[in-house]
Amino acid sequence: MRTLLLSALILATTPVLARDTYPPVEVLLQADKSVIGEPLEYPEGKAQITMAIVTMQPGQKTGWHRHEAPLAAYMLEGEITVIYGDAGTKTYKTGDALVEAFRSPHAGVNSGEDIARILAVFAGAEGVSNTVAEE
């Protein structure tokens, strides 16, 4: 009987120990819309995740462009200002997380005095361009 109780106690506490030892997760962002309110839509086709670090020198500009796939971004360092046309202008700094506008033209500039580094994660599809320059 004692062995049975001890076994039951071990089994009952094992899941708790497993949950308690899981690394803590700090959610940086959870969204269903872009920074300008566009509902997220994934491109058709075979899913493809692209992760990149974008580095911009002080004063460097992106030029007008749009994204064909949702883009989650995290500011690793520096500051950028993005112009969204009629939707306004926003400045992002180190530690900011966002879902960038897509399918809507926008342009960015490193508005800080130092390098800007952005972790960009595109939720795209094979054969679909993540970024398209605007004419």
From TrEMBL:
Which keywords label this protein?
Isomerase, Signal
Q: Which InterPro entries match?
A: Cupin_2, OryJ/VirC-like, RmlC-like_jellyroll, RmlC_Cupin_sf
Q: Does the keyword Isomerase apply?
A: yes
Which CDD domains is this protein grouped with? cupin_CV2614-like
Known Pfam families for this protein? Cupin_2
Signal sequence range: 1-18
The GO terms describing molecular function are: isomerase activity
The Cupin type-2 domain, residue ranges: 53-122
Q: What is this protein called?
A: Putative mannose-6-phosphate isomerase
